[in-house]
TrEMBL record:
Pathway: Amino-acid degradation; L-arginine degradation via AST pathway; L-glutamate and succinate from L-arginine: step 2/5. The active site is at residues 174, 250, 371. PANTHER family: N-SUCCINYLARGININE DIHYDROLASE (PTHR30420:SF2). It comes from Pseudomonas fragi. HAMAP family: AstB. It catalyses: N(2)-succinyl-L-arginine + 2 H2O + 2 H(+) = N(2)-succinyl-L-ornithine + 2 NH4(+) + CO2. This is N-succinylarginine dihydrolase.
Length: 448
């Protein structure tokens, strides 16, 4: 049976703004308070989805969240009508209003961790929504994320959904941004690679000193247990604390994997050689031939990797077995990174092509191509069981483009977040979107 790795890209929400909310994310903090363009951001994301569809990849869409999150503001003591809640929050606690308006759910690499049916004990595809409890503006996402994923992957014969882990520091879980999978074929048993920044209970693991390590070993282990993964099919590895302190807030800022290949920076991990040997041995036991490409620090410094998002790229397998690397325009703008990529192509290794996309609106807020997609490996039967409304087609692309142009503003500043009309615009847009994507009632305003 044929299998696919489907990329479900996050659709940028109508409140896309530069709030500078993510401590440890250099781009997010450095562009704080600039005016954003939600319409352009959403259209840039849709253009990437269409381009991958046109190249023959199966492409899906993951809906954004309702923002501002009035219920979250109410839980913090703001009362009255929706408009009064927003007005009072703007007057008394603007940072909380900004957080409640964040469109960060667009980065669906943080939506969940996904294990394909070939790896799990019950033969179903497993999803665990990420609690994202390191940052308040993201910690409020997982209830809606769970409902949206449940509406997309509803068939319980093929899909299993788990609630987010306890929302405490010891179980900080950032989803697929710290998880990848290696396999000979997407439909065969593979090796799932969990990367953590610190341990909550074991002091032998060093921790960063400047920025927080968002993923814990204990969270990764819990997800592996929930998904019914075997010891033979799992490798846990620690991020290098020194690179976290240089702005590598997720592993997907310093490494990307696909198929049998790991593309990573020389300084990405601790105990790198031991980790690579474990990956090689476990994948070999499952019939695979693990390979790695280590980018030397003397060719691309960590700072260049963070600023260009070289590793926050999509590594895609073509039908002929070669790989395509999808990178943001910022890689071409960085001379050292672009020189490295040209040398990589000339070397004739597994990565045979690099394609550049303009994702400036997302990049300025700290998210590149890899942040914008959640990968789900599916066989033909499972793909047929996915809600067809979320699979990209030329007609859906046209519909969503028209939807964005109809509902989205072309400029948004922090002061605009205090406008109650923005909430009405968002709800109107999302109500229409759930009909387009055939999701049913997934948003609080549709349920309550």
């Amino acid at each position: 049976m044929k299998s696919f790795e489907v990329n479900f890209d996050g659709l940028v929400g109508p409140t896309h703004n530069y709030g500078g909310l993510s401590f440890g994310n250099v781009a997010s903090q450095s562009n704080s308070q600039q005016a954003s363009n939600p319409r352009e951001a959403a259209l840039q994301g849709l253009e990437k989805m269409k381009a991958l569809m046109d190249m023959g990849f199966v492409q899906g869409v993951l809906a954004p969240q309702e923002r501002p999150d009035v219920a979250a503001l109410r839980s913090l003591g703001f009362a009255g009508t929706d408009a009064q809640v927003i007005e009072r929050a703007a007057k008394e606690a603007m940072p909380l209003l900004v957080a409640s308006c964040s469109a960060s759910s667009m980065w669906v690499a943080n939506a969940a961790t996904v294990s394909p049916s070939a790896d799990t004990s019950d033969g179903r595809v497993h999803f665990t929504a990420a609690n994202l409890n390191c940052k308040y503006h993201r910690s409020i996402e997982h209830p809606t994320t769970s409902r949206v994923l449940g509406a997309m992957f509803a068939d319980q014969q093929h899909f299993a959904h788990h609630a987010a882990l306890p929302a405490v520091a010891q179980f900080g879980d950032e989803g697929a941004a710290n998880h990848t999978r290696f396999c000979r074929d997407y439909g065969e048993a593979g090796v799932e690679f969990f990367v953590f920044g610190r341990s909550a209970f074991d002091s032998r693991y060093p921790a960063p000193q400047k920025y927080p390590a968002r993923q814990t070993l204990e969270a990764s282990q819990a997800v592996a247990r929930l998904h019914g993964l075997s010891e033979e099919g799992v490798v846990f590895a620690q991020q290098n604390p020194a690179v976290i302190d240089q702005g590598v807030f997720h592993n997907d800022v310093i490494a990307v994997g696909n198929g049998e290949l790991l593309f990573h920076h020389q300084d990405a991990f601790l105990n790198t050689e031991q980790m690579l040997a474990e990956l090689h041995g476990k994948l070999a036991a499952r019939g695979g031939n693990f390979q790695s490409i280590s980018v030397p620090r003397d060719q691309v410094a960590v700072e260049d990797a963070v600023r260009s998002y070289l590793f926050n790229s999509q590594l895609l397998s073509r039908a002929d077995g070669s790989m395509l690397l999808i990178v943001p325009e910022e890689c071409r703008a960085n001379p050292r990174v672009w020189q490295y990529l040209q040398g990589l192509l000339a070397a004739g290794g597994p990565i045979r092509e690099v394609k550049v996309f303009d994702l400036k609106q997302s990049m300025q807020n700290g998210g590149g191509p890899a942040c914008l997609r959640l990968r789900v490996a599916l066989n033909e039967t499972e793909l047929a069981a996915v809600n067809p409304g979320v699979i990209m087609t030329p007609a859906l692309y046209d519909t969503l483009t028209a939807w964005v142009n109809k509902h989205y503003r072309d400029a948004l500043r922090e002061s605009d977040l205090a406008d109650p009309q923005l909430l009405l615009e968002c709800r109107t847009a999302l109500d229409e979107l759930t009909q387009i994507l055939k999701l049913g009632a997934v948003y609080p305003f549709q349920i309550n």
